Structures are given as C-alpha cells and as structure tokens.
Amino acid sequence: MAHKAIKKQINIRSCARHERGYLIMASSVNICNDKADKAIGTMMATVVGTALVPAHVNWALTASAMGAGVVAIGLCYDIKLTKDEGWKLVKQFILSAGLWFLSMNVGSKILSALMESTGFGYGVGVALDAATSAAFAWAIGATSKEYFQREYLGKSKLSKDELGKIFREAFKDQKNK
Fold first, then answer.
1. Are the CB atoms for 114 and 45 separated by under 8 Å?
2. CA atoms of 27 and 22, how far apart (whole Å)
3. Of 17, 38, 82, 168, which one is least surrounded by beta carbons within 10 A?
4. What secondary structure does DSSP assign to 53-114, as a single string?
C-alpha cells in the first residue's frame, strides 16, 4: 500500500496536466523561483563587490561568481551542475544574446581598468564596472532561472534566439533601474 502512495505522489509531482499535480508543481515552482531570486541577488552582490578589485584582475572573480551563481540557481530547481557546466551555460547565454553583449562586457572591463589605473578615475572605473557587472549578473540569473524552470517543469528547451531575447530584455531592465 505504501508503494502505491509513493508512486502516486511521484506521478502527481511529475505530471503538470494532472489537476492536483499541477497545484503541487505550481507551489513547488514558486518555492524554486524564490530560492533562485535569492541566488541571483547573491550573485549580483558578489560581482558588484568584485568591482572594488582592480578591473584587470576582477574579470576572473566576476566570471567565477557568475558560473557559481548559475550552479546555485540550478540547485534551486534540483539540477546539479559542475562549475565547468555552470560556466559553459554562462558563455552560452551571453553568446545567445549576441556578440555585441560580449564585446560590451570586455570593452567595459578594459575601460574600467584604464580609468582605475589613473588613480583619479578609480571611483568612476569601479562604478562603471559595478553597474555593468550587476546588469550582466541579473541577465545571466534571469536567463538561468527560465532555463532551469523549464527543465524542472519538463518543458522543451529554449532555442538560442529565445535565450538571447531573455538575456537582452533582463539586461535592459536592470540597466534602466
């Protein structure tokens, strides 16, 4: 009898079409989303903090924080990734958004490094780096959240164009805050 109850519980969770299962899935997705939002906030705070480190060094810290953030967001949806897999997703999300986004991120790091090296422009360089890194972290977090949520719900994977659109819109929303 206990075996049937466990099997029924598993089927309810995995079947979004089942009326009762849908309610359970919806509430657990909300819990996952709340956890993911906290992970995104942590990732953003970390990359903003790395802006205090000179830009010619902090790119490695920022990249590591974003990869770890993707891993943390995946865990919110019970999806375990290695750090390498997290970093590969970061690259996939950025490249899906277009070469312009990658170029802009690299360009802002170079500009920040030049400004910081003058001493006089250190504060402006840190502010530029922090703002750009925070917007990138938000976009990567929002894209990760959608990516993992769809996998959790058993929906089809997002296309490169869909990933790019989510990334660009999230970046624009954060930049305009």
1. no
2. 9
3. 17
4. S-HHHHHHHHHHHHHHHHHHHHHHTT----HHHHHHHHHHHHHHH-HHHHHHHHHHHHHHHH
pTM for this prediction: 0.79
Q: Taking a C-beta distance cutoff of 8 angstroms, is the pair 158, 147 a contact?
A: yes
pLDDT bracket for residue 10 (50, 70, 90) = very low
Whether residue 74 contacts residue 43, with contact meaning beta carbons closer than 8 Å, is answered with: no
C-alpha distances (whole Å) from 40 to each of 64, 98, 141 are 14, 22, 5
Q: Give the model's pLDDT for residue 60.
A: 85
Distance CA 39, CA 19 (A): 30
- Confidence check: pLDDT of 164 > 90: yes
pLDDT at 7 over 90: no
Place 31 in a pLDDT band, splitting at 50, 70 and 90: very high
| Rounded average pLDDT over 23-44 | 85
Angstrom distance (rounded) from CA 48 to CA 40: 12
Give the C-alpha separation, 125 to 112, whole Å: 4
